[in-house]
Amino acid sequence: MNYRLKLIVSFALLISLAFGIGGTLLISSSYYSLLGEEESAIINEYETLQNNLMMINHFSSASSAQNMQELIDQMVERNMAHWQALSIKSSGETILESGDQSLILNYVNSTKEGTYSYVHINEGSSRRLLLYSKMSTKNDVLDLRASFDLSTSYKQWKSQLRMFWAIYVMVVILGVAVAILFANILTKRLQSLTNATKEIAGGNLSMRTGLRTDDEFEQLSRDFDIMADQLQENIQQLKEDVQRKENFMGAVAHELKTPLTSIIGYADLMRQGGLDEGDRLTAANYIYSEGQRLEKLSHKILDLLLMEKDTFTLRKISMRSFMEQILTTTYPLARKKNVNLVVSSDDVYIFIEPDLAKSLLYNLIDNAIKATPEGGNVKVIARGIKGGCEFDISDTGCGMENKELAKITEAFYRVDKSRSRAQGGAGLGLTLCKRIVDLHNGNMVFTSKPGSGSRVVVQLFGNMSQEVDYEK
């Protein structure tokens, strides 16, 4: 049974039971209340008759049959006699009869003198109340019997029941119609959510419900759409990650293929022999340089893979001492190319991962030196900022177009491919830098203008788990 049918059946049953039970109890209560009132009136009338008869027989010295008949006639005349049948006997002989005696002949009751008893008689649709009593007089004991009609209350009750059941059927029909309408409204909203779920399951990740009902269904719809947005974003992110990895692997394969082809070619020439001393030296130098480039490439790839898996702990170190180490490492590169390298630093303590930060600055300064012509300048400024540190590296090199800036952190991307290959670059340095910056919850911003040099500002923040390690 589906949800819509369950709603209809439940609502219809609720209305049927509530109206049916409530209406039946109400009508029955009304009937028994009216019946009780009618019985009380009958008993009062019977007691009045009994008391009057006893008074007549008590004060009369002669036969009181005529007096009793006069009493009965007076009660009838005054509309105080509502019995169907009445019988007064003395010592088994009938003194007075009124009405249809068959209504009381078949019912013989015994009771003590001075009291009365009654019994309900139900015959088909007829309802009667039969009363019987014995009254002591000066000369005899009178036997009084009377039958009263109760059919009016019963017929009224039956009429009310028939009317109620007619109304009950109409109410149930109306309730079922309302239940169907109500179920359609509810299930329409649920159907909208179901359809959206099927659409998303079928691959339509842009499907949204967008219900506006100002109730819990709207809240459910809003939560569903938020979930769908997050799902679409996650799947898109997965697709992008897969695409980046595919591009990365393709680029790795290409970068490995080119030097390996040259190495195999020169090695084959050397193996075959026939080369003079100069050609052999040229081939050996090429094999050596390409081997070094492959070694650097493998180290960069290994660093990237390690940063994807490992966790790192920040250490508290002296910025000035750290920058002196960086200068010691990069100064020979600048001197070899005759580039003026200037490094300045604040005398503060910072929280960083030293080995990763060294790799970051080495790559950035190395790129700046490579991009700067002979006699140019590379300037490095290290300063402490709120919550972290900042490194500002600028050069007077050839610069870049704005369209190149968005791509330079992509794996294996080179602005000048011929220069990068000649200098042994693999195009992974800035990719590695970006990953290091991300691990420090920082940011890296490049600015450049062709012919005017480039500038990169890196900010690192100590938000990872910190281990206090003082290094002077």
Automatic annotation (TrEMBL):
Q: How the protein sits in the membrane?
A: Multi-pass membrane protein
GO molecular function ontology, one term from the record: ATP binding
GO-annotated cellular components: plasma membrane
- Tree of life domain: Bacteria
Q: Which residues cross the membrane?
A: 163-186
Using the record's annotation, list all stretches that form the Histidine kinase domain. Answer: 251-464
Asked if the record carries the keyword Lipid biosynthesis, the reply is no
Keyword Ribosomal protein assigned: no
Q: Which UniProt keywords apply?
A: ATP-binding, Cell membrane, Coiled coil, Kinase, Membrane, Nucleotide-binding, Phosphoprotein, Transferase, Transmembrane, Transmembrane helix, Two-component regulatory system
List the catalysed reactions: ATP + protein L-histidine = ADP + protein N-phospho-L-histidine
One Pfam annotation, family name? HisKA
**EC annotation?**
2.7.13.3
Subcellular localization, per the record?
Cell membrane
Query: Top EC class per UniProt?
Result: transferase
Q: Which residues form the HAMP domain?
A: 184-236
Give coiled-coil spans as residue ranges: 221-248
Under the heading SUPFAM superfamilies, the entry gives: ATPase domain of HSP90 chaperone/DNA topoisomerase II/histidine kinase (SSF55874), HAMP domain-like (SSF158472), Homodimeric domain of signal transducing histidine kinase (SSF47384)
| Protein name according to UniProt | histidine kinase
Organism this protein belongs to: Pseudobutyrivibrio ruminis
